[in-house]
Each structure stands twice: as C-alpha cells, then as structure tokens.
Amino acid sequence: MSELLESLREALSSDAPSDGAPMPGNGSARLVTDPDVIASYAHDEAQWAPYGTPAALVRAGSARDVARVVEVCARLGVPVVPRGAGTGLSGGANALDGCVLLSLEAMDGILEIDPVERLAVVQPGVVNDDLRRACAEHGLWYPPDPASSPWSTIGGTSRPTPAASAASSTA
C-alpha cells in the first residue's frame, strides 16, 4: 500500500500544467488517506449494496489528475472506482477492497453548449440542475431525473451501472 500512496503523491504533485481548473492545494492535499473521510465516500445511497474498504481517495481537479491516477493504478494493478456526488441508488459507485476512489465532483465545468448542434460538453461533476439551467439560457431543455436533479451529477447519470451493463448485453 505504501508504494501505491507514494506513487499517487508523486503523480499528483507533478509540476506539469493542468488542463482544467486545478483544485486548491498540492497533490498531497487531493490525496486523502483519512479513514473517516474515505468512509464517507465508500458507498452511494443504496443501503443494500455491498462495498469494500478503499486504500485511498483522490479528489480529481482535472482530466490530467484522472489520467495520472489511472496510470498509477493500472501499473500497480489497483482497481479505480470513479464517483460523483454518490447519490445513486444502485451501488454503482461503491468501493472495492483496496481500490482508489476517484472523486470527480470538483470537475464541475460546463465547457460548451452548442444550441445549433444541441450538444453540451461538460465535466462529470456538473450538477444536473445546473446543466438544465445553462441549457435553458440557450433555449434548450435538458430533462434530468427530476427526483435527484438538484444534487446528482451528470457523470453518475451517464455511466451505466454494472447491473445495467449486464442487462443491456443480454438483451
């Protein structure tokens, strides 16, 4: 585990330029090892879904952070579990034992809305209601799930859960 944490610290503290608005603090500030904080990120709202104990939490601030975490974890054979707000009810963002939780909630930029193409380019931490409001400014309607739209993020609503992936592959 110490090799994992040291490799993540090194990768996240690099002086290479970021491709997005970086989170405040250095790499070690984005790398969280406090068990109480990690526990609060270990599962979504699905009370019945099992979850494990992660090795670490990384609060990504850019696509470069995400790439660096994935590179380290792939090299070391450590699973990565990406997550947004954790509001899901399916267990899709639940931690695996020894994984790195990759929080994408700070990547909340609406990068482009093209009303002609009816296209929005957003980061995964954008709250669905925020995207709905931004689309409305361009005369467009983005209809997120109304029950969770004030707090759920686009990354969670656009990524299929393992169960959904399995179901769609058998149909």
Structure characterization notes:
The protein has 171 residues and is α/β, with parallel strands linked by helices. It folds into two domains: 2-106, Uridine Diphospho-n-acetylenolpyruvylglucosamine Reductase, domain 2 (2-Layer Sandwich), CATH 3.30.43; 108-162, no CATH class. Helices cover 35% and strands 13% of the residues. The protein contains seven helices and six strands, in the order H-H-E-H-E-H-E-E-E-E-H-H-H. The strands form two sheets. A four-stranded mixed β-sheet has the order 1-2-4-3, with helices on both faces. A hairpin with a 4-residue loop joins strand 5 and strand 6. The longest helix has 14 residues, at 63-76.
How would you characterize the largest beta sheet?
4 strands, mixed
Structural class: alpha/beta
End-to-end separation: 40 Å
- The tally of structural domains comes to 2
Q: Report the average pLDDT across residues.
A: 83
Total helical elements: 7
Radius of gyration: 17 Å
SSE succession: HHEHEHEEEEHHH
Shape, please?
globular
Tell me the strand percentage band: 5-15%
Task: Looking at this protein, list some descriptive labels.
171 residues, alpha/beta, Uridine Diphospho-n-acetylenolpyruvylglucosamine Reductase, domain 2, 2 domains, four-stranded mixed β-sheet, two-stranded antiparallel ribbon, globular, disordered C terminus
